[in-house]
Automatic annotation (TrEMBL), chain A:
It is found in: Cell membrane. GO terms for cellular component: plasma membrane. It is a multi-pass membrane protein. Coiled coil: none annotated. Its main location: membrane. InterPro entries: ABC_transp_permease (IPR001851). The lineage of its organism: Bacteria, Pseudomonadati, Pseudomonadota, Alphaproteobacteria, Hyphomicrobiales. This is Ribose transport system permease protein RbsC. The gene is rbsC_10.
Automatic annotation (TrEMBL), chain B:
SUPFAM superfamilies: Periplasmic binding protein-like I. This is D-ribose-binding periplasmic protein. One of its GO terms (cellular component) is cell envelope. It comes from Roseibium album. The gene is rbsB_7. Keywords: Signal. GO terms for molecular function: carbohydrate binding.
Amino acid sequence: MNGLRFFASARFWRGALPALSLTFVLVGVFWLQPRAMSYFGLNLLFNLAVPIALATIAQMFVIAVNDLDLSIGSFVSLVACIGATWLRDTPLLGIAALLGCVAVYAALGALIYIRQLPSIVVTLGMSFVWSGCAVLLLPTPGGSAPDWIRTLVSYKPSYVPMPLLAAVALGLVVHFGLMRTSWGVLMRGVGGNEKAITRAGWSVLKLKMVMYALTAVFGILAGLTLVGLATSADANIALRYTLLSIAGVILGGGEFVGGRISPVGAVLGAMTLTLTASFLSFLRISPDWQIGAQGAVLIIVLALRAIVNRLEARR
Amino acid sequence: MKIRQSLLFATAALALTTAGMQPSFADTADKRIALSNNYAGNSWRQAMLNSWGKNADQAVKDGVVAAGDAFTTAENQATEQAAQIQNLILQGYDAIVINAASPTALNGAVKEACDAGIVVVSFDGVVTEPCAWRIAVNFKKMGEIQVDYLSGRLPDGGDLLEIRGLAGVFVDDEIHSGIEAGVANHDKFKIAGSVHGEWTQTVAQKAVAGILPSMPEIVAVVTQGGDGYGAAQAFAAAGRPTPIIIMGNRHDELTWWKEQKDANGYETMSVSIAPGVSTLAFWVAQQILDGQDVPKDLIVPFLQIDQADLEDGLANTEPGGVSNVEYSLDDAKAYLESVN
C-alpha cells in the first residue's frame, strides 16, 4: 500500500521525469536509427554529452546557492585552451594556471557574497575576462591535447561504452557528496535558508567559496574532457555550454532558488539535451526549426514539471 | 550485430537493383554523401547550399551517388557541428563534406569519421586533421593579386586605401597579410589608410566617407569583397575622383562597374570565391569514393572577372547575389588532373 502511494506521489514523478524524458528520446533515436543501438553507436551519441554533463554539474553547484553562472561556457573554453597549450608543453605552468582558476572562482564567490552583488552581473563580466584570456592564449584555433587526456577519453572498456560509465559515475559521486553527507546538507542549506545556516554558526562565506571552487573544478574537468575529445582547442569552443548547462540543471529537476537540485537529474538532463539534438537531426528537421524544436522539448518537460508541482502543492 | 548485417544486406540489394536499372558510369552508385555546414546566414552561404542542392539532386537522379544530403547546424558552434558529424557517422554516410566552424575543434569528430572508414572532405572552412582532405581558399593570394594587378595598371604607384573585413576573423587577417605582402613586393605603393568595411556595402561606405577627408590623393582601393560599391559611393559623395576600386564579384559592384565602363571606360578587376566550390567538394568526395588518387591538400581557384569578361560575369550573377561557378563531374576531373 505504502509503495503504491509512493509511486503516485509528486515526489516520485519529480524524480522520474528526467529519466523518463531521456528514455523517451532514446527510444525515438533507436527507432529512427537502429544503428545507434550498438556499442559504437552509443559511444558516438553520448561522448560529447560527457563534457556537457560536467559543465551542467558545475552550473548546478552555483544554482544550489541561488546564483547563476553565465561564464561557464567561456570558462570551459579557456580551460580547453590551457589544456591544449600549457598543460601539454609546460605541465607545471598548466596545473598552476588551472589552480589559479579555482582560486579566482572561490574569490568570485566571496566577492558576490560579501558585496551582495547579483551573480549574473559578476559572472557575465567574468565571461568576457575568460574569453579574453582564451584569445590571448590561443589567438588562432590550434594547440593539441596532452596524450594522457586523449588516452583517457578514448578508452574503450568492454561491454559498456565509456560515456555511459562516466555519466553514471559522475551522477553517483556528486549525488553521494551533496545529498548523502552532512557537508552536502550545509551547502544546499545556503540556497535553502541562508539565515538558518548563519544562526547555526556556520560561515556562509566559506560555504559559498567552496561551492564556487567546486564549480571551477567541474568546469575544468569539462574543459579537459572536451579538449580530449576534440583533440585541439579554439577560444570559442564551448560558448554554447552556458545555456546548455542551465537548461540541463532545470531539465533535471533543479530549481533556480531554494537549493533544490538533483545531481543525477542534472546528468540525465544534459544527456537528454544532447540526445534531443541528435534526435531532431535524425528526423531531418530543417535547422531553422531545430532551435525552436529544442525549445519546445524544454517547454514540454517544464510544463509536465509544473503539473507535478501543482500536485505537490495540493497535498 | 544482426541489425547491422541485415542493413548491409539491404544496401547491397538496393545497390544491385539500382545498378541493374540504369547504366551507372561510376562504382559510387550506392554511396551516400552528406554535407555538414555550420552557417547559412548570408548570401554567399545560401548560394553555396543552393549549388550543393541542385548538383546533388542531379547526381542522385543520374545514379552517380545514392544520396547527397545537406545538413546545417542550428547554431554556428563547433561543439554542435562535432555532434552533427557524429550523427552523420551513425547514419552511415560514406563521405562527409564539411564547411567547418573551427579549423581544429572538429578534429576529434573528423578522426572518428575517418576511423569508421568515412571519406572526409573539408572546404572553405577547412579542418586540420591529417586524415581529411582540404579544399582551401588561398585568401592571402587573393590579397596579393590585387596589388599585382594595380602594379600593372599604375606604373608610378601611389597611395592605397585598404578596406578590411571584420576584425579578429581569420579571413580578414589572411587577405590583409596578402595585401601587405603585395605592397612589400611593389614598394611604389603605400597604404595610406585602412578601415573596416565588414564585407558590407553600407558599413564600407560609412567607414570610407569617415576617413576620406584626412587622406591624400588615393590612386586605388584594395578590398575584400562586398565593400567596393560602398567605397565608390563614398568617393562620389566626397566629390573626389574615382580611383581604381577592386571589386568582389557582388551583383551591385558589377552593375556599378558596368555603368562606369559604359559611361567613361572605367577599368578594374573583381575577385572572390565562387560559392559553387561546394559542388567541387562534392565531386572530389565522389572521386575519392570512386577510388581515385586525390592529393590531400587542394587549393580552390579564384573566380576573377577582368574587364573583358565583365558582361558575362554580370549575366551569371543573380541580383543581390555573388558571381558563381558550379562544377560538373567533368570540370572536377579536369581540375583534379590539373593539380595532380
